[in-house]
């Protein structure tokens, strides 16, 4: 087997990317501390043609060297918005017809593999702070909470890994 070249991969440039049809999914970062996690989320959002990323609270905004280090330019292709408050962000998204889904371990959450998108609906997935997770006030104002099942000794995954798993799962559903 031979590795594919960039020509073989048929990638678009950042300018062309803006005209590519996006899936109706917005990623919301609720006070994410690590700029490298933010950059990784941008890169994954680019890969799965996510509509946009919302950066809230203390979450850093491009341009930042540490974001660029992991985003590799995806912070220029993916549309992003900044909100001082995650609540303001989710209220704005809800007013635009998005279903708000916090990715958090809560009583009554839906396991990711059992979460099924409804055709024609728009979704926003909220990922929380590396230590505290999604703020309780945001959880309380969500339409649902989704949880990734885990069987090991640790109670959570890194936010960039969590975001990649969730985006991939929903991308598959939207693209079917």
Write up what this structure looks like.
- The chain has 176 residues and is α/β, with parallel strands linked by helices.
- The chain has one domain: Alpha/beta knot (3-Layer(aba) Sandwich).
- It is built from eight helices and seven strands.
- The protein has a seven-stranded parallel β-sheet with strand order 3-2-1-6-4-7-5, sandwiched between helices.
- The longest helix has 17 residues.
CATH homology superfamily name: SPOUT methyltransferase, trefoil knot domain
Q: What is the element string, with H for helices and E for strands? A: HHEHEHHEHEEEHEH
How many helices? The count is: 8
- Name the CATH class: Alpha Beta
Low-confidence stretches: none
What proportion strand?
15-25%
Instruction: Give the overall silhouette.
Output: globular
Q: Work out the count of structural domains.
A: 1
**Which strands sit side by side, in order, in the main sheet?**
3-2-1-6-4-7-5
CATH architecture tag: 3-Layer(aba) Sandwich
Alpha-carbon Rg, integer: 16 Å
How many strand segments?
A: 7
**Assembly state of the chains shown:** single chain
N/C terminus separation:
28 Å
The overall average pLDDT, rounded, is 96
Helix content: 25-40%
Structural class: alpha/beta
What can be said about the biggest beta sheet?
7 strands, parallel
In CATH, the topology is named: Alpha/beta knot
In short:
This protein is of the alpha/beta class and 176 residues long. The chain has 8 helices and 7 strands.
